[in-house]
Amino acid sequence: MNKNNPKNGQYYLTLAIESSCDETSAAVLKDGREVLSNIISTQVEEHKKFGGVVPEVASRKHVENINMVIDEALEKANVTLDNIDHIGVTYGPGLVGALLVGLSTAKAMAYALDMPLVGVNHIEGHICANYIEHKDLKPPFMCLIVSGGHTHLAHVKDYGVYEMLGRTRDDAVGEAFDKVARAMGLGYPGGPIIDKLAKTGNCEAIKFPRVYLENGSYDFSLSGLKSAVLNYLNSQRQKGIEIVEEDVAASFQRAVLDVLVKKAIDGAVEKKLDTIVIAGGVAANSGLRHMLKEEGKKHNIKVLYPPLELCTDNAAMIGCAAYYNYKAGKISNMYLNAVPGLKLGSV
């Protein structure tokens, strides 16, 4: 294999597969940043009745959908497998059964077609979603990764090179949003619902705690805040006092955002970086986008984020990460296995 000799002459085509949770997705990208197709089959409605993702259900749906999604991605991109230079696939972190569906499919295709296989860290994929939207973006920059399963603050030193400054010690941001929404009877997924309610609520109505941890720490902790909200709800109900959902949502969300924004800004200032990017499903939160942008202006820090369709799990972001890994010679072998607890920067 010659990394400098793409099949298409002047550019590389990546076929990417993502199945880490409850979205089955396949995409085709040109030179890592131009999306020719990005097909996503979501299972949100399937899991709503359970109030969250059921791993076994997710895995079965991936098996049903994955071949159709790949075929549609190739068709929409107007390419065939003969045009593809390499296959990128998520191998962690995520639900092990869900990961194995995408990974097994990618390995089978790579083996049958004698094509390079590139394993991708799902968290790295979220970071790379910003490269797709912001064509001039290049490292170094600070990245706040916030989703249903992850909360990280990473110094992106170069393509594929990360210094982890902090991560959650308990609940992820999206997980906390979902649990609070469930306790309020708002439905699933909780993040968009709370964000919408917060827009008409009073963020100072209820004094929920801000958990900053030790001085100088960039780690996060959300379990205490989540417990404070649940205790408040239970107390109000026991006293027969009406709960103003908008105020609870606004006060809870502001308590979360105060910590996220401060740590992201402090990290960028300490590392002397002039750009912060947001990644992950919670990057779609309008309050987070607005607040971080406003705080960034005070420090002459530019704040960037992906469009909504690239915030949630999708294969385009995996394809972007796969492209840079491939160019760096990071090729996987057929022994590549799913790693549910994969850390950013792990091999």
Model description:
The protein is of the alpha/beta class and 347 residues long. The protein has two domains: 13-128 and 311-327, ATPase, nucleotide binding domain (Nucleotidyltransferase, domain 5); 139-308, ATPase, nucleotide binding domain (Nucleotidyltransferase, domain 5), CATH 3.30.420.40. The protein has ten helices and ten strands. The protein has helices spanning 44-48, 55-77, 96-113, 122-133, 173-183, 190-198, 223-239, 245-270, 286-298, 315-327; strands at residues 13-18, 23-30, 34-42, 86-92, 117-121, 141-146, 151-158, 161-167, 275-279, 302-304. A five-stranded mixed sheet has the order 3-2-1-4-5, sandwiched between helices. Helix 9 (286-298) links the parallel strand 9 (275-279) and strand 10. It is globular, with a radius of gyration of 20 Å.
Poorly predicted residue ranges: none
What CATH architecture label of the largest domain applies? 2-Layer Sandwich
CATH class of the largest domain: Alpha Beta
Question: How many domain units?
Answer: 2
Mean pLDDT: 92
CATH topology type of the largest domain: Nucleotidyltransferase, domain 5
The beta-strand count equals 10
Radius of gyration: 20 Å
Structural class: alpha/beta
Secondary structure: helix percent: 40-55%
Distance linking N and C termini: 21 Å
The amount of beta strand, in percent, is 15-25%
**Biggest sheet architecture:** 5 strands, mixed
H/E order of the elements? EEEHHEHEHEEEHHHHEHEH
Question: Which shape, going by the Cα principal axes?
Answer: globular
User: What is the count of DSSP helices, taking H or I runs of 4+ residues?
Assistant: 10
CATH superfamily of the largest domain: ATPase, nucleotide binding domain
